[in-house]
Amino acid sequence: MFKKKLFTLASTALVFSLAITACSSAPKEETSAGTTAPTKEAAATSDAKGASSAKDLKPYKLVMIFPSGVVPKDLQAVQDEMSKYLTEKINATIEIRPIDWGAWENKKNLMFASGEQFDLMFTASWYGLGQEVAKGQIIPLDDLIDKYGQGIKSVLDPAYVEGGKLNGKSYGVVANKEFAATKGVVMRKDLVDKYHIDLSAIKELKDLEPIYKTIKENEPNIVPLQVKNDRSPASAILGYGMFDMLGDGPGVLDRESNELKVIDMFETQKFMDTVKLMHKWYQAGYINKDGATNKDSEFLAVKAGKAFSYGESMKPGFDMQETRNTGMPMVTAELTKPYTTTGDTTSAMFAIPNTSKDPERAMMFLNLLYTDKTLLNMLDWGLEGKHYVKAGDNIIDYPQGVDAATVGYNLNLPWMFGNQLNSYIWKTEDPKIWDKYKEFNSSAQKSIALGFVFDPEKVKNEIAATNNVMTQFTGGLYTGTIDPEKYVPEFVSKMKAAGMDKIIAEKQRQLDEWAKANKK
Amino acid sequence: MASSNKTHWLLHVLFIFIACSTILPIILVFMVSITDETTIAQNGYSFLPQKISFEAYRYLFLDSMTIIRAYGVTIFITVVGTLGGLLLTALLAYPISRKDFPYKNGLTFFVFFTMLFNGGLVPWYLVFTKLIPLKDTVWSLVIPGLLLNGFFVLIMRTFFATSIPMAIIESAYMDGASESKIFVQIVIPLSTPVLATVGLFNTLAYWNDWFNSLVFLSNSKLYSLQYLLNKILLNIQFLAQNSRNTNAAQLMATLPTETVRMAMAIIGIGPIVLAYPFFQKYFVKGLTVGAVKG
């Protein structure tokens, strides 16, 4: 009958659908102008500075990706300016691609899967570094650093470079910033002054008790201590304050111990004492009642005038930062001394992915971020006169008629890039901040397991199971909501049932291997 | 009849309840979006804000270009995608609905197979970036995964097969109509219910899609409206999970506030609420089966 015509109809549909896709305009060719292999001959003649030999290098377009909450409006303009500058220095142009925090994992993996060229990527121990190394997605950088990264070497303390290595190789260049954390509480300055609270008398957690009592008695509408379901002063001072948590999963190292022995934090006296204290405070009404379920950041409660203090991980200039967040003057009190662990030396790195067509050039660019103030500040803050104006030596301010909300370049990620101590300081910040950073870093106690990175692959299931148990209990314990006497034993036995001991044994095994390899 | 009155009354209550449960959340979202930020921090959400403020909308329209552009993109992909999708779905569904079409089973299976198995995210991405270069184009929001959906093809096929009598098609053929003429002038006009159904699904799918933007776009000028909203939520989720990392905690403070998120949701709903009434009239039209003398 009319079978033939029907077939044409059906095939029209299929062909048509293909035709539509084929008609779409092809994007511009992604690859750079004519470099397909690393330019070895150029590399051989270039010195570490790269400036004098820019002409000897072939033009190359670097692509840089990093996570960011915003894509600045004027990104293109800043990119063009940086490209101009880089062409003179290392004959390269650059494309900056900020990727949303939430989309990062997906995007990054797809970029690797499709093998498209990109040359520099952000990574960190808390952001996939271990996996990327295990999959071979990022390349070891030691030789490149030796050749083209002399500037990096001159800036970074070798101990931190060592601490950021995996399997004895550097896979990322860490940003030069604070390399330690100190734990403590942030308090409202006005109330501290009003009740003549002596901050220097605060040495440990229990010293806060009389202060909270004063606030509770005199300020009936204010919660002395605001906590959140996964964070409180207790969780802060235990995790990386009294213990090196050694990465994911249970199994920690006591800060005061001299041997590399992995223990269970939840069975220690320190843990028990801390959560007992929290529970006591909770019963005394010093802590917000919804602590175990509250998911809002603590500073919001202070901002709303409902709370007096909260626990945090701190670094120099933190009081300023929190003052900005809460909209009222804040002061800080340290409860632990600064402590450097692997988490700090791998917390913000740039790596070179295996899809880069010219890793040498990528390393030259990284090197400039540590040595070249102009370039770094362009990347950090944009263009002078348009996005910021100089208000003194190294001090900057917003241009007239522009503020933080309207500025066209608002990446605001100085902690990610290069040598942060070279970045300009906003007028609202402490002008001495970078000196304080240096002091902070040198005063910090380095963990004896600094440089150890735990690979959770073998105990993935146990970690997932113990994480579930922890979610069930730690919120209630850290916020003081539940009674430790009653629940800690139950918590520990459930953790054991979920395979905690296996994880601890695995951590110990890896730690021993690491110690052997590094002759600790 | 007392009993029927009672059931009537029960039904009314039931439907009033269902209507409230869908409308109230939207009203609440709207009310939160016009509440003053500090009021929320102090008293939580409420239907009657103590202090009204349009700050959130002001904040959004500071950068109104972004939203207007995203609106443009979303409207474009919804219109083009819905029409194109309907056309392609019908063109594929009609032949495989015909019993006298020789490749019917093979093609049907071909469609059905895609419903059960897919290659996974990475091959899907590779097809639309390497094989068909759609990356960073507006077509990447129209074609991948949305344009032709196996499930809709089968719905349409079933409708064509069950509601369009073969007798009509044969009689038209006798009168000298070509195959395409039959399709356009007889089958399509008789199929408004199914076209409206699939069209509505398509419209909603395009309007609500954010995943394609996430996967295929690095150029923020092409982001669809829903992705603008979704990326903020994804960012918040991510940073909240990583709040132990000081830097992440620092970033939390820079994200839009509660009221801004709600305002974005309200803007995101936008004209799509009008889509259903528009399609409504096609749903209520009965099916015409009376064109053939029995």
From TrEMBL, chain A:
The answer on whether this UniProt entry bears the keyword Signal reads yes
InterPro entries, sorted: Bact_solute-bd_prot1, DUF3502, PLipase_C_Pinositol-sp_Y, SBP
Segments of this protein annotated with the region Disordered: 29-50
Q: Which residues form a coiled coil?
A: none
What SUPFAM superfamilies does the record point to? Periplasmic binding protein-like II
Q: Which Pfam families match?
A: DUF3502, SBP_bac_1
Record's signal peptide:
1-22
Keywords carried by this UniProt record: Signal
Query: From which domain of life does this come?
Result: Bacteria
Sequence ranges assigned to domain PI-PLC Y-box in this UniProt record: 398-460
Q: What is this protein called?
A: ABC transporter substrate-binding protein
Whose protein is this, by species? Paenibacillus hexagrammi
From TrEMBL, chain B:
Chief localisation class? membrane
Lineage: superkingdom: Bacteria
Boundaries of each ABC transmembrane type-1 domain copy?
71-264
Q: What InterPro entries does the entry give? A: MetI-like (IPR000515), MetI-like_sf (IPR035906)
Q: Which PROSITE patterns match?
A: ABC_TM1, PROKAR_LIPOPROTEIN
Where in or outside the cell is it found? Cell membrane
Q: Which SUPFAM superfamilies match?
A: MetI-like (SSF161098)
Q: Where is the signal peptide?
A: none
Q: Where are the transmembrane segments?
A: 9-34, 70-94, 106-126, 138-161, 182-207, 260-279
**Membrane topology type:** Multi-pass membrane protein
Keyword Zinc-finger present in the record's keywords: the answer is no
* Keywords linked to the UniProt accession: Cell membrane, Membrane, Transmembrane, Transmembrane helix, Transport
Write out the similarity annotation: Belongs to the binding-protein-dependent transport system permease family.
Q: What is this protein called?
A: Carbohydrate ABC transporter permease
